[in-house]
Write a structure and sequence with these properties.
The radius of gyration is 12 Å and the shape is globular. The chain has 73 residues and is an all-alpha fold. The two termini are 20 Å apart. It is built from 4 helices and no strands. The chain is 71% helix and 0% strand.
């Protein structure tokens, strides 16, 4: 999945359950298993706030960190 500001805005339009599933899927694709974590309502609200405030630079940095994690796994 291509992650950019437009994608993030689309993700933010989802309801909490849908957003949680997308985050879990993206994490899984990056090699992270979030199944043992119980994402609560306040967690998803914090994630929404962080995503809404993410700049293009923040997004690029996150993508780079995920790619590095995958390579070093």
């Amino acid at each position: 999945m291509q992650i950019d500001k437009n994608t993030i805005n689309q993700m933010l339009s989802l309801n909490d359950k849908q957003l949680t599933k997308i985050i879990q899927r993206l994490a899984g694709e990056a090699g992270l298993d979030l199944s043992s974590l119980n994402i609560r309502d306040n967690d998803i609200q914090s994630l929404r706030k962080a995503l809404a405030n993410a700049t293009d630079e923040d997004i690029a940095k996150a993508i780079s960190q995920i790619e590095n994690f995958k390579k070093n796994k």
